[in-house]
Every structure is written in structure tokens, then in C-alpha cells.
UniProtKB/TrEMBL annotation:
Annotated InterPro entries: cNMP-bd_dom, cNMP-bd_dom_sf, RmlC-like_jellyroll, WH-like_DNA-bd_sf
One Pfam family recorded for the sequence: cNMP_binding
Protein name: Crp/Fnr family transcriptional regulator
Chain ranges of the Cyclic nucleotide-binding domain: 14-106
Signal peptide start-end: none
Length: 193
């Protein structure tokens, strides 16, 4: 159950096998069925979650019922509402499973205890945070400056798995375009190949 997590850790830092074994008890394994919620808007985010298997999405609902997809999380990715997780305030987001999923949940208390027991994990999480900040900045700049075609092309090139595993209307929401625009872009791309 920890294969993806250990792979993720070893991509960022060098952690001996005995240290990897020491972190296992801090995580809570959980299975989620397709369409089942991990977090609902208004609830406090009690876990930061690592995806061992499956696909999840984080999204907000607006007054007209429109979904705005904030993040997809496939194997090897972390997902959660960090603001709610760190402050204990209610979340503005929903997180649900797009596929059956196997997850590793980490509470704030378990996270602190793990960092005390295995200090090298602090560097792992710092590197994750840095990468997340860079990705968020790039996404913000892309959403403000790139055309719909450029945003879609960037997503296809960076995350081809998402295109294969996530419904098109959710991809459109993530890119901030209509499903009709995405359909037109995909049609244009298929005729130019």
C-alpha cells in the first residue's frame, strides 16, 4: 500500500528503508469508491491525503451550480485543502473520487509526530510545497495569458494520463473553458495530426 508514497519520497530525498518503515504507522489507509467524497464543502479538512491508486478531484461549487475544478490528483499526488487543514476552518472545496481509490491519510497531529520521529521528512514536505507554489504560479499565469488551445496543449503535454482518465467536462472546468470550446479544440487538434 505504500509503494507510490515511498517512490514519491525517494524522488525528492534519500530515506533509508528503516526510516520509510518508521513513517507507515502515521498514515491511515483508506479506500474510496468512485463518486465518494473525501471532503465536502463546509467540513474541516482533517487530513492531507496521498493517492496510492485512483484519481480524485478538488472543486468548488458556485451559486449557479457551476463546478470549478481546482486540482486533479492521480497516483503519487497529494490532495487536500491546506488552508482548512492548517487553520481548522471549514473548507470551501469538495474532494471526491473519479475512480475507486486507495489513499493514505495524514492528520495534523500525525504529521507533527512523524516529522519529529523522521526529521528528513521535513525536507520532503518543503520540496513538495516549493513545487506546489511553482505549479500554482505557472497555472495562474497560464490562465491569464494563454489561449484555450495553449492551455489544453500544455495540459496534454504535461499530464497525458489526466486526458485519458478524466471526463472532458471536468477538464474544461479545470482549464476555465466551456465543454463546447474544449470539444472544438480537440476536433481541430485531431484534424491537424
Amino acid at each position: 500500500m505504500f509503494e507510490q508514497l515511498f517512490h514519491s519520497i525517494n524522488q525528492k530525498i534519500s530515506l533509508p528503508a528503516q526510516e520509510l518503515e518508521r513513517i507507515k504507522p502515521f498514515f491511515i489507509p483508506k479506500k474510496l469508491r468512485k463518486r465518494q467524497y473525501l471532503l465536502q464543502e463546509g467540513d474541516v479538512c482533517k487530513y492531507t491525503t496521498f493517492v496510492e491508486k485512483g484519481a480524485l478531484r478538488s472543486y468548488s461549487l458556485h451559486e449557479k451550480g457551476n463546478e470549478h475544478v481546482i486540482q486533479f490528483a492521480l497516483e503519487g499526488w497529494w490532495v487536500g485543502d491546506m488552508y482548512s487543514f492548517l487553520t481548522g476552518e471549514p473548507s470551501m472545496y469538495n474532494i471526491d473520487a473519479l475512480e475507486d481509490a486507495e489513499l493514505l491519510l495524514l492528520t495534523p497531529a500525525a504529521n507533527e509526530a512523524m516529522l519529529a520521529a523522521v526529521p528528513a521528512m521535513e525536507k520532503y514536505f518543503r520540496l513538495l510545497l516549493q513545487n506546489n507554489m511553482i505549479a500554482m504560479q505557472r497555472r495562474l499565469v497560464a490562465s491569464l495569458s494563454l489561449s484555450a488551445e495553449e492551455k489544453y496543449t500544455r495540459l496534454v503535454n504535461s499530464y497525458p494520463d489526466i486526458i485519458q482518465r478524466v471526463p472532458q467536462h471536468m477538464i474544461a472546468s479545470y482549464l476555465g473553458i466551456t465543454p463546447e470550446t474544449l470539444s472544438r479544440i480537440r476536433k481541430q487538434m485531431s484534424t491537424t495530426r
